[in-house]
Design brief:
Homotrimer. The protein contains four helices and 18 strands. The chain is mainly beta. A 16-stranded antiparallel barrel has the order 1-3-4-6-7-8-9-10-11-12-13-14-15-16-17-18.
Length: 362
């Protein structure tokens, strides 16, 4: 009993000492919008809904660091996404589905271990005018990035104008290093008003088939305006991209729907060629305006050979800051599909959406 008490007391002292050298921050975003959308189901009815934000999903998290000396820090971050309209957790109900990692940061860069954003998401988050949207209708080009991955060890570093990153996700399948595996790498360079870079990544499923994504983008600042151009390419033998974009006409949902019967993604991989151009403009210190156009040429949609199609999207967004932490916004988006990609709409081959919302950052 005395030994246990001494160990407990020593642990408490060490914990108190560590806490005194550490910083822990609770943070988050609560973002809600009222959204109208045309052709929202197989009967082409319109819909009204209270939903998450147009470009930022609601979240809360805890992050912290401890100074270890010589500019070395221990870091961690735990982050959960949620829907304020229902209180439900996102990412299939995970406790910390957005991010959950621990690592070390220093002059050499940063090493993280845990659930993290993919290199594709990290790269295009800096090179997309919307910083990657939150509605399917304004974010679908970046479904190719897979957003996040489990069991990842990553490295990121900034050296002057050079920003690099690389990550590897353990498949954790006995007897195989490639099944369920992920890896990616990115590099970007900023010089004066210019920024340019590229990214490549692969994600494999449980049978070892891979979904590849690559891209390049640039941006240029002109006074209060910033112009963006980008390219995203993809080749998917897993069927995951089609599954994430196809509508279930019985529910109107787009999450993890099966591809239509008759397709074989392994034999006839989906191929995406996406280009975009956009601009952001800081009209006043409080008012920011964004416009962007995305276009995609898709081959072998739903794993059917020569089942090709196109998708086009235009988005306008206006954000007004009421304070440093609170913004209101309005947005309009238009999507049109043709050929094989018509399965990405529940009814007619087009949708128009409009929304207004409020975002508070804490």
């Amino acid at each position: 009993m005395k030994k246990s008490a001494i160990v407990l007391a020593a642990g408490s002292l060490l914990a108190g000492s560590a806490f005194a050298q550490s910083s822990v921050t609770l943070y988050g975003i609560v973002d809600q919008s009222i959204r109208f959308q045309t052709n929202a189901n197989a009967n082409n009815d319109n819909s009204w809904e209270l939903t998450n934000g147009a470009v930022t999903n609601s979240r809360w998290g805890i992050k912290g660091s401890e100074a270890l000396g010589n500019n070395l820090k221990a870091i961690f971050q735990l982050e959960n996404g949620f829907d304020p309209d229902t209180g439900r957790a996102n990412q299939n109900g995970r406790l910390f589905g957005r991010q959950a990692y621990v690592g070390l940061s220093g002059d050499f860069g940063t090493i993280k271990l845990g659930r993290q954003y993919t290199e594709g998401f990290n790269f295009f988050g800096d090179y997309d005018p919307l910083t990657i949207g939150n509605y399917t209708n304004n974010a679908w080009p970046f479904f190719l990035t897979n957003f996040r991955n489990d069991n990842v060890i990553s490295y990121g570093g900034k050296f002057g104008g050079l920003d690099v990153g690389a990550s590897y996700g353990f498949g954790e399948q006995a007897g195989s290093m490639s099944r369920n595996q992920y890896w990616g790498a990115r590099a970007a360079y900023t010089f004066g008003p210019f920024g340019i870079g590229g990214v490549y990544q692969e994600v494999r499923n449980l049978t070892g088939e891979k979904q590849q994504m690559w891209g390049a983008a640039g941006k240029y600042s002109i006074g209060p305006a910033k112009v963006f151009v980008g390219y995203i390419g993809g080749k998917d033998r897993t069927g995951s991209v089609d599954a994430s974009l196809n509508f279930d006409t019985s529910t109107g949902a787009t999450t993890l729907n099966p591809i239509p019967a008759g397709g074989n993604a392994a034999a006839n991989p989906r191929k995406d060629t996406i280009g975009y151009i956009g601009v952001t403009y800081q009209a006043t210190p409080a008012l920011a305006l964004t416009g962007v156009f995305y276009g995609d040429y898709v081959e072998n949609v739903n794993g059917v050979n020569n089942n090709n199609g196109r998708r086009y999207t235009g988005v306008l967004l206006a954000e007004y800051s009421l304070s440093k932490r609170t913004q209101v916004y309005g947005t309009v988006d238009f999507n049109k599909v043709s050929g094989g990609t018509t399965t990405e709409m529940p009814g007619r081959n087009n949708q128009t959406g409009a929304a207004v919302g409020i975002r508070h950052i804490f």
